[in-house]
């Protein structure tokens, strides 16, 4: 073949945009952690920052919180997901649940967390529902439910948001492992539904969703926005404390923040290590248990539990969303009334300018980062195709790396590095930081549709005289319009939801819907939270509606493209 | 012997191990049928001639068409048409646009439209230009696929089990249509099939692999 050996430009650029900020950020964390921070007048190396960190009285609590909330959130999310799948896949109830949950996948973490606060707070809907007839409360009780020192509400917030994520990832993976026949075989040998699922399907499924589970684990260990809204405050989780130190007017605190960021990285690595150990132990126990041949016929309690948990998660998201809407339009609303006395546009009018400015900024950042991301991702897929390359398991880990590495470990470093280099923070660094998290999700959502496209279409087009570029532009991309738009919507939702990259790479000056919403958390102005939370949710969800509507409109006369 | 399709001592190796060996000549207007059980690499041979051989395979020997050496050329410059079991009409284009995709470039818009309409009329599909390919029957799709390929003015025609997807009655009709057009244009045809009836209808030489 006489094809010119082309330089794989797109893959190289993608790796650069993906790993560049990561490596730079880690480097920018390591230097000040060891006392080297020229912009602040500090020259290392020294261990002073670590000494200060280990003298900080809140460290053990923050460390414990980070480990416990992370591991418990991941375990609970996985267990609930498995219970729902084991008990209910293939039933009508499951399809209802799936339809209920999928739209909420795109809801930003912060909005979901705010929605939860409107439910479980002492003055929230649940308390109102049972007051005063059952509880006797005439006023909101003085209970520490939100921001509880054990991080329980933080865990609840994470679980509510991660169960839909794991569930939909699992449904996608189940398509590849022929679950139905595995189930039929095991059940025909007399195994109960849940037991059959756990033995015959779960191990294969787990292998396929292991990376998403690690994303949930490390994300839950180091999350900032949800922890600001729902997590404990004195002391807060380690990641929240890092962000507090980073935003201290005394620039010297950046050294302490950098040392804490490295400590956070160590914790996450330890957490992943513990998780791997757990995997190993459970697999061993399970193998021994399978040998007993017990059939596990009594399924009802577990199935009921799975259904109850699945319903609780969906209802929390649904009612939380409803709470955002109602608070944003609420006039006077006294406890324990279930609804406000009147509905008004006052909150929307008051925040019109602020929220529209933030919406514009959000749209601009999402638009640019997703456009760059789509060009790079399609460029990569096409280059790999032409050069006959396939994404290896190692390549998959590379793509997942920015999602698994804790954001608090390298984003503070990115900021200090920008400071050291005398570069300003602002919109451009924010866009590049968003790209780091947008790129993996674009690739993950396009990989399947791209590979399963019938390559004989390309052969036919080439035999008709079409060049590779014509095949791409005139045949492949138009045929893949629907998945391309879905990937774009996923990318926009990811960008809209980013809190820490916007805050740190923007130096606090880039104000998106997410940063504005999270900033409202401490003030407790629920009407403002409703407005910004709702705008944030809409900004993440509307692109999905468009991604569904547009192909149906464009291809309304092309049946072959409407049903998959 | 410059005319037709020459496969000169063609050997295809998969990961270094020989898969197919063939040395033959298909004269213009005649059909060479290649038969054999699935998995012997019949389709691989076709993709080698088209120019879409996957990297795991290696091709030795020469493939010449009308005196030109095909192997150094990219697929789009080889002037080799192919029909598969499925019509593979592009689902995002109308029937007419599918044909326009195949039609060699040049000519005014009206001339091109006229050529497309003529081609449709030739296979009894007058007025189908604006139809969605998905709304066509299997036999209609096969005929559009044939005309799309012929409009690209190929110098040879490859058939990869092209009639297996059609029911018995249609099968004969479409087969006759394809052979008739190929003969009328004096195209060398290489057909891969596992159906003896196809081979008998082709009437040409039969090579058995595997």
UniProtKB/TrEMBL annotation, chain A:
Give the location in the cell: Cell inner membrane; Cell membrane
InterPro entries hit by this protein = MetI-like, MetI-like_sf
- GO terms for biological process, alphabetical: transmembrane transport
Q: Name one GO cellular component term.
A: plasma membrane
Q: Where is the ABC transmembrane type-1 domain?
A: 59-274, 359-554
**By its UniProt entry, which CDD domains does this protein fall under?**
TM_PBP2 (cd06261)
Q: Does the keyword Lyase apply?
A: no
Membrane topology for this entry? Multi-pass membrane protein
Among Pfam families, the record links this protein to: BPD_transp_1
> Member of which family?
Belongs to the binding-protein-dependent transport system permease family.
Q: What is this protein called?
A: ABC transporter permease subunit
Automatic annotation (TrEMBL), chain B:
- Any coiled-coil regions, as ranges: none
- Establish whether keyword Protein biosynthesis is in the entry: no
The segment(s) forming the ABC transporter domain are 2-209
Q: Is the DNA-binding keyword given for this protein?
A: no
A GO term, aspect molecular function: ATP hydrolysis activity
Q: Which UniProt keywords apply?
A: ATP-binding, Nucleotide-binding, Transport
Superkingdom: Bacteria
| Full protein name | ATP-binding cassette domain-containing protein
Query: What lineage does the source organism belong to?
Result: Bacteria, Pseudomonadati, Pseudomonadota, Alphaproteobacteria, Rhodobacterales
